[in-house]
Structure formats: C-alpha cells, structure tokens
C-alpha cells in the first residue's frame, strides 16, 4: 500500500530527472559535482588531519588521539578487551537472557545491527589501501589497533546504554550526544556546559560523517567496483556515476523516506550472509595458497618493523595500519554507541562486553583475512595506484576464483547499502538532537542525505576519501574528550558487575542454567 | 500425580480443534489447563537500527493484540464452563517455547494442532507439532 502511494509520488520526480539528465550528462555532471565539492572537501580534510612531523613523517594528530585513548582505556580497565571476552560471548549467546523479556532487543541483535554499519567497504577497500600504501606490515599494526579499539568500544557502548533516553511511547534513543550532555552534567555543575558543547560538536560531526564516510565513500567505491567488473573504462557505466547515484538514492529513499522497512529488513538478512561468504572465499583462497602463508606472516611481521620502500618508513607503515583499522571499526568515533543503545538490559556494562566483539570481528578477523588474501596472492604491489581501493581486493580474489569479482560486486553494493541505511539513522539521530523532531526537519535531513549519495558516486576517490575520513575522525574529538570525564562512572558499573559475576550472583537461564 | 494439560494455540482452525480436544479432556477429568500462544520471534534475527529503536513498543503491541484477539477470549469462555484455566503468551521459537512453559508450569501433557497458521512454512521447515514431538519431555498429542 505504502509502496504504491510512494511510487505514485516519486514517479513524476523520477520522470523529470530522467528527461533532464541526458542533457546534463553531456556537459559532464560528474565533473561539475566533483569540482563543486572538491575545494570544500579538501579544506575540511586539511583541518581535521592537521599533522605534526616525527622523523620526517607526517603524523595526523587524530590518530595519536584515538590510539592513546584506546591504550589508556585498555590499561585503565585492566585489559577488559581480553578479560571479558569469554563473558561477552556468553551474553551474546543468551545465557543471561530472561525468557520473560523475550521479544525485546537482544545483545545479539544490537551487536549485529552495529556490525552491519561497520563491516563493509572499510574491510575491503580500506584494507587494500592500507596494504598498498603501507606494505604487508601495515596488517600487524591494523590488528593491534583493532585489539586496543575493543576497549574504546567497551567504554562508549556502556555509556551509550547508561545515558540513553527512554521515551514514554516505549522507544529509545542513545549515543554520545546523550552521554556527553547528561553524563558530564551528572559529574559536576561545572562540566555541564562543556558536556553540552561536546554533544553539539559531536552531533555536527556525526551529520558530516553520515554524509561522508557513511554515504559518499560507500556510493563511490561500490560504483567503482561495478564499473570494474563491467569492463573498466570501456564499460557503458564508466561515465554514468550520476545514474548509479540516482538508482541507489531512490532505493535508500524508499527505505528512509518511504518507510519501506521491508527493503532494509531484506538487506539486513542478506548482508551477514554476504559477509560470511566473503570470509569463506577469503579462507578458501588462503587455503589454496597455504604454502605461501608462512611467508605472508613473515612479511607482515618483518614489514611492520623494517619498512623498505614505504613512504615514511616504519612510522608510515604504522600510520597506514592504524588509520585503516580506525576507519574500519570506528572505535572511539562514537557511532556504534548509537546502534548499541537500543538493547534491553538492566546492566549497561553488559552491552560494553558485547561491543568488544565489534572491532574483533571487523578488524582482527575480517580485515586480516582480506589482507592475507592480498598478500598471499601476490596482488600486493608497492607501485599500485592507491586510489584503486576495492579494485585491488577484487583482483586478488579474481586471481584464484575468476568469477568472484561478481560476487564481490554484489557484496560491495549490499555492504554499501546497509552502511548507508545505518549511517542515515546515526545522522538523523544527531540531526534531531540539534534541530528537534518534526516532519520538516526529518525530511530536510533525508533529502540532503540522498543528494550526497548522488554526489558521492560522481566524485573522484581522492576528494571523497579525504572528506569521509575527515568527518568521521572529527567525531572522535568531542567523543573521546568527554569519555575521559566519564571513566569513573564506567569503572564503578564495571566493578559492581564484575563482583556479581565472579561471585555467581548473576542469574543464568535456559540451557545455560541447566549446564551449570 | 494429577494431570496438568497444556495446549498451544494460534489463530488457525487446527488450533481450534486442538483447543476443543484439550478443553473437553480437561473438563472430563477435572484438571488444570494451560493455554499458550507463542509469538514467533528469534533472539538471533538481524534487525535494522530503526526496528531496534521501536522494538519495545512493538512488543507491547504484539502482546496486547495476542491477549485481546487470541488468548483472553478463549480463557474467559473456558472459565465460564467452570474450568481451571491459565493463559500464557510468550515470544520465541514455538516448539521450544511450548516445552519451556510446560517445564516451568509443571504440565504433564502437551496438545497441539497438526498444522498451524503458517502452513507453507511448515511444509518447508517442518511443523511445530513435528519439532515438538522431537524435543518434548512430556507426552504430546497432535490433533488433526
């Protein structure tokens, strides 16, 4: 019913677009959009990535910021990333889920929802970029950053649940906007204003990130892959970025404006399947090149400490690894806290334990497999053009499974789509935090979001990737700064819970109870 | 040991026959009857952030509807016949949840219809009755 209604409303608009687009296309819509956004994108990226020089290498400050935080949280919570790993699994499995609360959002569902927002192009395109710019050694730093990032996720997701808003109509809303403003106000009167400022800053950057990495980067890379499998530059699609953009924007629009959750629901079921499929394909390829695996590991370890021919030497390798890990798993960025906060639990810290699995699955497992595939197939080549992104990963898979690029294309487009749906939600939450909830403010955000989809698929990777990185990383400044003030609160929650857990005071249910 | 019957219902004809069978039996031997309706749900399904946000509200609405349209009318009419009836509504996997409720409330016998409301699903994946027979610790009666 709604589909027909919306179809009727959208039809004239689409007809108009289609009739006027060929005329634009001749003038090169792609380049026009690209030229219009590029100067803005470049200046934003330049500001966020202001860097300092260490032994001749430019180190972006934001990376140091994220990494220091992740290391600090790991030590402050006495290696919670390893300590609570097993318990996190028990929670996801449902050992502690009361059957009387069945039907509410479970730990598994919150984790899966958050993961579908993070597992995606970062794991495919991002890893390819890291390995081509930083060499195999970047993989080791990426894994390390993933392991440390688990602690950052633990903190932000615990806070996300603790300070979420529960409305009288039974809906919930959470995320850094809420814990920064409510949490800091709770700490002390003096921090109230700071909390408010950080929350507003976070919301602004989150909206930017939802247009950048959560949108334009996704559209851009999935279009690139589609062009690559349909014949590269000779493809009919090669100069039709706008067309791809219009199609994707229409589909996203049907979900976020048309309220056709069916499409989103179908995607949310196919995406995990595609994820498992690409991991399985990766493992198959690694298995087929099993003889090269020891050498690959050796090159990962060697490359991490002695970088030859890599711009910036070891520091350059390290930065590539850290950067891609951070971009892929978003630990410390704050986005996941929005997705995790819908879980039903009386102990916020439990969702923190569950969130440990997000960087673990995303970076330590999936990214590492992609990196290994690129290394063992020998597709990695220091002279390769770094803007190739997905294409490099695709080539690595193709060298062993010739038809796999097609599967990868479907996976890439679906990952991109589900990431866009997730980020449109994150962005909208930030948007309504700033501008309040009303039909008009909602509609304005959603239309802007769709326009950025079209822009993203028309732009060159260079300016898109810089802008996406910039906006997503900007979120880390207010988020992490606020978290430092809230650490004692998380510590108290954790210590209380851990004492209960160790003393066996937590009630198990179902099969877990019978096992005990 | 006195008998406690448990009957699983949904809005299908077959469930109505199972209910009639169970209530006649309970009336004849004067024992307690538990009427259970399970709302199909899995803790391991994949959901969108929008769905998660509204989940609590949806759950309340689902429970409310199940009470109003399925369980309460049955419980009320059976009580009028003088039976000792209890109504239960749960979310979960139908067969597993029926077993869990039976264990929890001390039912000695489970009665279900042969095919429920989701006939096509049953053809593909096996019916509730089928899996119930496999996993139940109590005797199961399947009503055609």
Tell me what you see in this structure.
The complex is a heterodimer of chains A (516) and B (144). Chain A is mainly alpha-helical. Chain A has a single domain, classed as Amino acid/polyamine transporter I (Up-down Bundle), CATH 1.20.1740.10. Chain A has 23 helices and four strands. In chain A, the strands form two sheets. In chain A, strands 1-2 form a two-stranded antiparallel sheet. In chain A, helix 19 runs antiparallel to helix 20 (439-458). Chain B is an alpha/beta fold and 144 residues long. Chain B has one domain: HUPs (Rossmann fold, 3-Layer(aba) Sandwich), CATH 3.40.50.620. Chain A binds chain B through residues 94, 97, 99, 102-106, 108-110, 112-113, 116-117, 169-173, 261, 264-265, 268-269, 271-272, 338-339, 342-344, 421-422, 425-426, 510, and chain B through 39, 41, 43-57, 59-60, 62-63, 90-92, 97, 100.
Element string of chain B (H = helix, E = strand): EHEHEHEHHE
What is the helical fraction of chain A, as a range of percent? Answer: over 70%
Uncertain spans of chain A, ≥5 residues at pLDDT below 50? 14-27
State the CATH superfamily name of chain A: Amino acid/polyamine transporter I
Number of strands of chain A: 4
Helix tally of chain A equals 23
Head-to-tail CA distance between termini of chain A? 50 Å
Shape of chain B: globular
What Rg of chain A is obtained from the alpha carbons, in whole angstroms? 23 Å
Helical content band of chain B: 40-55%
Strand numbers in spatial order across the main sheet of chain B:
3-2-1-4-5
Structural class of chain A: mainly alpha
First-residue to last-residue Cα separation of chain B:
28 Å
Question: How many domains in all of chain B?
Answer: 1
**Oligomer designation:** heterodimer
How many individual β-strands of chain B?
A: 5
Q: Structural class, judged by helices and strands of chain B?
A: alpha/beta
3D shape of chain A: globular
Beta-strand content of chain B: 15-25%
Q: Which strand order do you get reading across the main beta sheet of chain A?
A: 1-2
CATH architecture of chain B: 3-Layer(aba) Sandwich
């Amino acid at each position: 019913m709604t589909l027909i209604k919306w179809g009727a409303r959208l039809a004239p608009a689409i007809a108009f677009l289609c009739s006027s687009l060929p005329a634009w296309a001749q003038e090169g819509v792609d380049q026009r959009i690209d030229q219009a956004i590029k100067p803005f994108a470049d200046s934003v990226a330049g500001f966020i990535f202001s860097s300092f020089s260490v032994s001749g290498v430019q180190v972006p400050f934001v990376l140091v910021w994220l990494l220091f935080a992740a290391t600090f949280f790991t030590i402050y919570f006495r290696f919670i990333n390893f300590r609570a790993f097993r318990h996190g699994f028990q929670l996801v499995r449902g050992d502690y889920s009361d059957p009387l609360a069945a039907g509410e959002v479970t730990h598994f569902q919150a984790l899966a929802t958050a993961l579908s927002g993070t597992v995606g192009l970062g794991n495919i395109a991002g890893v390819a970029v890291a390995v081509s710019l930083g060499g195999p050694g970047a993989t080791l730093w990426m894994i390390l950053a993933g392991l440390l990032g688990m602690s950052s996720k633990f903190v932000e997701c615990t806070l996300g649940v603790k300070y979420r808003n529960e409305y009288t109509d039974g809906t919930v809303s959470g995320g850094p906007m809420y814990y920064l403003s409510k949490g800091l106000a709770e700490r002390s009167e003096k921090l109230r204003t700071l909390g408010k400022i950080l929350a507003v800053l976070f919301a602004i950057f989150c909206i930017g990130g939802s247009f950048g990495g959560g949108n334009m980067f996704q559209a851009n890379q999935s279009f690139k892959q589609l062009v690559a499998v349909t014949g590269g530059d000779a493809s009919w699609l090669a100069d039709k970025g706008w067309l791809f953009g219009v199609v994707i924007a229409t589909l996203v629009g049907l979900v976020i404006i048309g309220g056709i959750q069916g499409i989103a629901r179908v995607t949310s079921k196919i995406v995990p399947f595609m994820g498992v499929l690409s991991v399985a394909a990766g493992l198959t390829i690694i298995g087929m090149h099993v003889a090269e695996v020891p050498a690959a590991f050796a090159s990962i370890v060697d490359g991490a400490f002695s970088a030859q021919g890599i711009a910036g030497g070891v520091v350059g390798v390290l930065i590539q690894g850290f950067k891609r890990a951070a971009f892929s798993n978003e630990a410390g960025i704050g986005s996941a806290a929005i997705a995790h906060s819908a879980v039903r639990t009386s102990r916020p810290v439990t969702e923190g334990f569950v969130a440990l699995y997000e960087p673990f699955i995303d970076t330590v497992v999936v990214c590492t497999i992609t990196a290994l595939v690129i290394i063992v197939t020998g597709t990695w080549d220091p002279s390769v053009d770094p803007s190739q992104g997905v294409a490099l990963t695709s080539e690595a898979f193709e060298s062993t499974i010739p038809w796999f690029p097609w599967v990868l294309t479907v996976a890439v487009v679906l990952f991109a789509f589900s990431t866009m749906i997730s980020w449109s939600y994150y962005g909208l939450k930030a948007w309504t935090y700033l501008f309040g909830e009303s039909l008009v403010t909602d509609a304005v955000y959603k239309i802007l979001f769709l326009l950025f989809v079209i822009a993203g698929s028309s732009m060159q990777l260079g300016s898109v990737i810089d802008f996406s990185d910039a906006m997503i990383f900007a979120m880390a400044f207010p988020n992490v700064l606020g978290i430092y003030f809230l650490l004692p609160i998380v510590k108290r929650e954790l210590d209380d819970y851990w004492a209960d857990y160790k003393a066996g005071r937590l009630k198990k249910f179902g099969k877990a109870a019978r096992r005990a | 040991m006195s008998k406690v019957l448990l009957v699983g219902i949904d809005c299908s004809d077959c469930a109505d026959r199972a209910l009639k069978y169970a209530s006649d039996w309970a009336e004849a031997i004067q024992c307690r009857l538990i009427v259970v309706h399970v709302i199909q749900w899995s803790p391991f399904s994949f959901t969108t952030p929008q769905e998660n946000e509204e989940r609590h509200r949806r759950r309340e609405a689902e429970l409310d509807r199940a009470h109003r349209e399925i369980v309460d009318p049955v419980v009320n009419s059976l009580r009028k016949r003088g039976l000792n009836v209890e109504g239960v509504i749960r979310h979960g996997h139908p067969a597993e949840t029926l077993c869990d409720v039976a264990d929890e409330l001390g039912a000695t016998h489970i009665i279900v219809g042969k095919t429920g409301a989701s006939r096509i699903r049953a053809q593909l994946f096996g019916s509730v009755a089928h899996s119930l027979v496999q996993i139940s610790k109590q005797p199961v009666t399947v009503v055609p």
